[in-house]
Amino acid sequence: MSAYPSPLPATMTAIAIAAPGGPEVLQPVNLPVPMPGPGEVLVKVAFAGVNGPDVAQRKGAYPPPPGASPIPGLEISGQVARLGEGVTTLLPGQPVCALVSGGGYAEWCLAKAEHCLPVPPGLSLAEAAALPETLFTVWHNVFQRAYARDGEALLVHGGTSGIGSMAIRLGKLFGLTVIVTCGSPAKCEAALALGADHAIDYKAQDFVAEVARITDRRGVEIVLDMVSGDYVPRNLRCLAEDGRHVTIAVQGGAKAELNMAVIMSRRYTLTGSTLRPRSDAFKGLLADEIAREVWPLVAGGELRPVMDRTFPLRDAAAAHARMDAGAHIGKIVLAA
């Protein structure tokens, strides 16, 4: 096992969930520094991204999959500190960002080597930590599951969220027309400034009618849905023939009543996914494709995450309070 730096501390600060509840249940604890197993690396965490699944886990609605750390945090950046057996693709001291299945809210975190991406010059470690979870999610769901193509239109709910802002940036880089919904005129303005082609204030406007107007009643080819529930039948009314509806969260409820005759007659595809429970092999293949197709845009400075605020690791509760308030635009990160 290669060493960098030497020696390692015996313990670290991490953020544990004392019990399901509000942001106040996030508490700093002292834990042993983990050691990497075969195919893993130990990363000295610089920053950890804060995401919707972390909030759901804190509330008790999204438990970690078997074998995953109970510490929240699904994306990190930092320096490789130790190499596990068989790791030959990374070097001690190398700056990386990584998709992890848990454990990100800590000073040290284990990551699968195949789930790490190098941090190129010009990309800050704070920005790097804000990329993996949203980039992997949007790429898989919009481009792999919904097979987005140049010239198509994409409707995204929550346009200024981490996922929404990544969908805007990535969609525009790959030739999509991006329509978003937001909860206020200020957020609509922010979404347009991020690159969205159209922004709909869903509290003041009927987004179904607005999508029809914007598309001359043709509809969009893809809906990226984080709401579900009673939004689904409304989303389907926004779809063009042969449209694809992709669900990645159920913030508005898990059940929807659908007219299957409409789905058949208009040849809709309804799909969805969750990323965290997927196999290491799947995530490795996804990382490989992102490294080929998207990472050159990151290295060239064309793709950057939208950054909201940075909080110290020990203030994870304050970061979650900001998430709960819905005031953020883009990504919140924790500085370890």
UniProtKB/TrEMBL annotation:
The record's Pfam families line, in alphabetical order, gives:
ADH_N, ADH_zinc_N_2
What keywords tag this UniProt record? Answer: NADP, Oxidoreductase
InterPro entries cross-referenced by the UniProt entry: ADH-like_N, ER, GroES-like_sf, NAD(P)-bd_dom_sf, Quinone_OxRdtase_PIG3
Please give the CDD domains that the UniProt record associates with this protein.
p53_inducible_oxidoreductase
Does the record bear Cell membrane in its keywords?
no
Record-linked Gene3D superfamilies: Medium-chain alcohol dehydrogenases, catalytic domain, NAD(P)-binding Rossmann-like Domain
Keyword Mitochondrion on this protein?
no
Q: Where is the Enoyl reductase (ER) domain?
A: 21-334
Instruction: Quote the PANTHER family the UniProt record gives.
Output: OS02G0805600 PROTEIN, QUINONE OXIDOREDUCTASE PIG3-RELATED
The protein in question is named: NAD(P)H-quinone oxidoreductase
Task: Report the source organism.
Answer: Novosphingobium bradum
The lineage is: Bacteria, Pseudomonadati, Pseudomonadota, Alphaproteobacteria, Sphingomonadales
